[in-house]
Amino acid sequence: MSSFSITFRTSPSAQVLDLSGELDAHTAQDLEVAIQTCLSNGKFALIINGTNLRYISSAGLGVFMAFVEEVRENGGDLKIAALQPQVYDTFDLLGFPHLFDVLASVEEAEARFISGKLRN
Q: What string of pLDDT tens digits covers the 120 residues of the chain?
C-alpha cells in the first residue's frame, strides 16, 4: 500500500499543501479531499509543496486538472513548488509546466502570489 500524507500551513500569500510520499491511484482521493477543503474554506491561492513527494502517477496529476479551472475562476491559482527531479520529469513529460507555474521553491511560489502574478 502507498504511503502518502498531506499537511496544511498558511503562508502570507497562500494555503500551502505539503505532500509527502507517493501520490497514485490509491492516494489521489486524499489530495482531492484536501483541495476541496481549501476551496470550501474560500482558499483559492494554493501552493503544492513537493519537497517530500517521491512519486506521482497520472491519477495524481489528474487531481490538479480537476481543480485548476475552479481555482482560477475564483481568482486564485494552483502553483507547484519544489518537486524532486523524478517527479518533475513526470510533470514535464505530460506538459504540466505549460499549464501550471512549476517553481523551484515554496518561497518563489509565495512571491508570485504576493506580486499578483497568477501565471508565468
A: 569 999 999 998 999 999 999 999 999 999 999 999 999 999 999 999 999 999 999 999 999 999 999 999 999 999 999 999 999 999 999 999 999 999 999 999 999 999 986 665
Q: Is 0.90 topped by the overall pTM?
A: yes
Q: Is residue 118 in some structural domain? A: no
Tally of domains in the chain: 1
Owning domain of residue 82:
4-113
Residue 89 is inside which H or E element, if any? helix 85-93
Per the domain annotation, does 57 fall within a domain?
yes
The CATH number of whichever domain residue 105 belongs to comes to 3.30.750.24
